[in-house]
Every structure is written in C-alpha cells, then in structure tokens.
Amino acid sequence: MPPPTLPPPLPRSFYDRPTDLVARELLGCLVVHRDGETVRVGRVVETEAYLGVRDKAAHSYRGRTPRTEAMFGPPGHAYVFFIYGAHFCLNAVTRPEGEAEAVLIRAIEPVANCLSKGDGPGLVSKALHIDKSLNRVDLTGDTLIFAPGDRPPAATVRGPRVGVDYAGAWAKRLLRFYEKDSPFVSRAGGARKRPSPKRGRMV
After folding, report:
1. Is residue 185 one of the residues assigned to a domain?
2. Smallest Cα–Cα separation from 6: which of 150, 144, 149, 151?
C-alpha cells in the first residue's frame, strides 16, 4: 500500500521572510504530519515570532548551542524542542541561514486524526504526534509540512507573547498572533485569551 499523500507544502520562499510576517500568515494554514499510515492535520490559530540573537525571549539569544542549532537555518525547517520535562514544541525556522529566527506554533484547531486538543504549544505536538525525531525536518518535504488552508482567519489579533516576562522590553513586543474569537486559542492563567486595549490590538 503506498504511503498517504500530503497536500502541496508552502514553498521555502514563504519562510525566508520577516518572521513576524510569517507568523501572521501561518494563521489559517494547515500543519500536516504524515505519521506512518496516518495523516494528522491541524489548522493554525495562534503563533509567536522569535527574532534571533537580539531577542531576549528567543532560545537563540545566548548563541548557537546543540539545542538551538536548528534555529540557525536554513529556513523552512522544523525546530522542535523539549520543555518542562514533558512537552515538545513545534517551530518553523525563518529568515536567511544564520539569523536564528523562528515561529512557534502555539495553538491549532484539530482537523483530522488529532490525538488531543491543540490549545497550547505542548498540546499541538501531542495532537499531531510530533517529537524530537522531527527536529530539523524539511517543512517542504513529505513528512511534516505547512500547507495553505481553505479558511483564512476572519480577523487577527496581535499582542505580546505569553510567559516571557523575563525578557524585559522584549516581553512587550507585539509578536503573538491569533485568530479573533477562535475557541481553539491557547489558555494562559486559566482564562481564554481575548483582545484588550492593553494586551492586544486588531491587525
């Protein structure tokens, strides 16, 4: 039996652009994992941009390490890291090789064969069965891809990233993007996030 086919992936040129633009334009796209004979699909509803060695919230801020090697490119590859001893998190590497920028996939709307809900970065990987074996995989290949969706977000909200208060002024940068009113957006502090004059704005 031939392996299941995937939809055409976004081209590498999609990722080789400003990271905040990629983060915004990934909303509404599909993330697709060919997991053996099963194709798992989620629709991206929330992302965060991390802007390389100058961004105090980015893993690459402290330079190149074995953990962050994938962030340094080339663009259009996955950066998968393990956090809190329990969760894998999926990122799409952006920008030219060496700039160490990436987009965190923070939440998905389950579409097909998901193993859990996806309203948080750790749950995204659980839903799609993503682990460290997919670190550095080519997102234009035939295993893990992003593909155009058929339903763009009705409206997008832009606000500060979650859980990066340690990053000083970088914690206030508006580098988180999410689909307005989506019930699948992640939770923080036990409450569903909604735009407010202080925490986010429509874009």
Report:
1. yes
2. 144
The domain spanning residue 148 has which CATH number? 3.10.300.10
Helices (H), 8-120: 12-15, 19-25
What is the residue type of 63? Answer: G
In a domain, 83, yes or no: yes
| Range of the structural domain that residue 20 is part of | 12-189
From CA 12, how far away is CA 177, in angstroms rounded? Answer: 21
* Per-residue pLDDT in tens (0 to 9) along the chain, 203 residues: 666 788 999 999 999 999 999 999 999 999 999 999 999 999 999 999 999 999 999 999 989 999 899 999 999 999 999 987 789 999 999 999 999 999 999 999 999 999 999 999 999 999 999 999 999 999 999 999 999 999 999 899 999 999 999 999 999 999 999 999 999 999 863 334 443 333 466 55
CA distance 203 to 84: 32
Helices (H), the chain: 12-15, 19-25, 121-128
CA distance 33 to 195: 31
Residues 178, 107 contacting (CB under 8 angstroms):
yes
Number of structural domains in the chain: 1
